[in-house]
Specification:
Helix 1 packs across helix 6. The chain has 11 helices and 12 strands. The chain has 2 domains: 156 residues, Glutaredoxin; 120 residues, Glutaredoxin. The chain has 308 residues and is α/β, with parallel strands linked by helices.
Length: 308
């Protein structure tokens, strides 16, 4: 049986009438690989099939799927533009290169600087696979390295995706919570995650300890400086109201915390490392820190912030 006939048979498994879906506009977006190559997404999307894989070095299923990603790139990379997009959250060039070497990756890897692509594709969790046909329409999103994903990548490579059902990006997230940042009261925003304490315990133990210690320290400081406006912001990655409630109960958080439902607050405040504490006064940022080992220095900064 020829590969062409096999592809047609596969098509019947995922065939459906096309439905309307958004066409991604990245016409002015360029990214640079960790090896220094510039990729102009505007010259690719809408002209060539694209496979985007969002990942992080500390994401366990992302690591488990690395051989699949590399295999897909080697098999179809000449026909399907394949890019591994690191979230750029709690990651560094060194950790990414270590992962590249560990799995002997040749697939192009880029950092999502400012989480522009994560925002564009409404990223909620990693790993995240996005397939875009040559017309610029999204035909697949998902978290699993599944048979369906493999079939669609093969069909992208042979140009048989015109009648595959297009999919819309998830727009079901609740409205964005507006932070309470009064002009007449200094505000402390504590950015963190509801899972970094336990999820990273084995893979990134130092990061896990940092998350735990930071939350405990901020709890203590909020009690010492009650005149300041303390608020917590949790990344929406793998997090909903259930996880928010479990987290605040576990750590006995004494101030209000929100799930950043669209991650817009993380984007607006350019937070790419958690935990991070940001101090605001009269609408302006006074300081920020993501190290919590020097309690005296942080208390000194808070004393200055609280002073009339």
């Amino acid at each position: 049986m020829s590969k062409h006939i096999l592809s047609i048979i596969i098509l019947f498994f995922i065939w459906s009438q096309a439905v309307s879906a958004e066409k991604i506009d990245l016409s002015n977006t360029t990214v640079k690989t960790i090896n220094g190559k510039t990729i102009n997404l505007g010259q690719i999307i809408g002209k060539k099939p694209v496979y985007l894989k969002f990942w992080a070095t500390w994401c366990i299923p992302c690591r488990e799927q690395m051989p699949h990603l590399e295999h897909s790139f080697k098999q179809y990379g000449d026909k399907v533009e394949t890019i591994a997009i690191n979230l750029g959250i709690n990651d560094s060039l060194d950790t990414v290169k270590m992962t590249q070497q560990e799995f002997q990756l040749s697939v192009p890897i880029v950092f999502d600087k400012g989480q522009v692509l994560a925002k564009t594709f409404n990223l909620i969790a990693t790993p995240y696979h996005v397939l875009i046909n040559k017309n610029g329409k999204i035909i697949h999103t998902g978290h699993d390295a599944s048979k369906e994903l493999d079939k669609k990548i093969e069909l992208l490579a042979v140009g048989l995706t015109d009648n595959i059902k297009e999919v819309s990006l998830n727009k079901s997230t609740p409205g964005q919570t507006k932070l309470n940042i009064p002009n007449n009261k200094p505000t402390l925003l504590f950015f963190t995650s509801a899972w970094c304490d336990w999820y990273l315990e084995k893979l990134r133990p130092n990061m896990s300890s940092q998350c735990i210690n930071a939350q405990k320290q901020v709890n203590t400081l909020s009690a010492q400086y009650p005149a300041l406006n303390w608020q917590g912001v949790l990344t929406r990655l793998w997090t909903g109201e259930k996880e928010l409630n479990e987290y605040t109960k576990k750590f006995k958080v004494p101030f209000i915390m929100y799930v950043d439902a669209t991650n817009q607050h993380f984007f607006d405040f350019k937070v790419n490392t958690f935990p991070t504490l940001i101090a605001l006064k009269d609408g302006k940022e006074i300081f920020r820190t993501n190290t919590f080992h020097d309690t005296k220095q942080l208390q000194s900064q808070l004393d200055s912030l609280a002073a009339p």
